[in-house]
Amino acid sequence: GAGVSQSPRYKVAKRGQDVALRCDPISGHVSLFWYQQALGQGPEFLTYFQNEAQLDKSGLPSDRFFAERPEGSVSTLKIQRTQQEDSAVYLCASSLAQGPYNEQFFGPGTRLTVL
Amino acid sequence: SQQGEEDPQALSIQEGENATMNCSYKTSINNLQWYRQNSGRGLVHLILIRSNEREKHSGRLRVTLDTSKKSSSLLITASRAADTASYFCAGNSGGSNYKLTFGKGTLLTVNP
Q1: Which of A25, A47, B61, B70 is at a distance of 20 to 30 A from A63, taking alpha carbons?
Q2: Closest chain B residue to A102 measured between Cα atoms?
Q3: Structural contact between residues A112 and A90, judged by C-beta atoms closer than 8 angstroms
Q4: What is the DSSP letter of A26?
């Protein structure tokens, strides 16, 4: 079946521009996660949704970052007034249910480059 | 912040050899997971070991967990060129039953 998909796969933005990154989780998956992966580093947690509720946004680096999942399926990560330090791969993951033993399935990521 | 630290940062071996990667973590965990990442397939879950388990096998993979030392190891036996990838450990911490905290990864290169 279809896995987690993300679009666009690559995004180049000029500093100061707003960007929107989309995630389509696996159908029926309740939990959705966003991670940020800088070059040469492991992914770092940004935010977590259970259905449409954003239960944890503790990893969002600044108030320029905003995520939503209004209908409990597709999610959008928005970054306002992008800065060069926002350049990274943004990974989305989904899992069937909440809980520590539910495997997270990752999408291919969106590579954001801010010039 | 990174939960785990993988060791070594990079490893190069010949096809057929075994590869061992280690991970040390900082806080108590519910479980520890290993992931593989390459450009072709993205980040893929390999194996999960619970905090009350000491060893787990899956195909050519063997994972151990020592909670007293806060460390885990991943052994890949009879490596193949297709195993070339970055390998990450990720801890699911006691304070959260959903958030994964990843290490920096080990880059494994398997030479044919």
Answers
A1: A25
A2: B98
A3: yes
A4: P
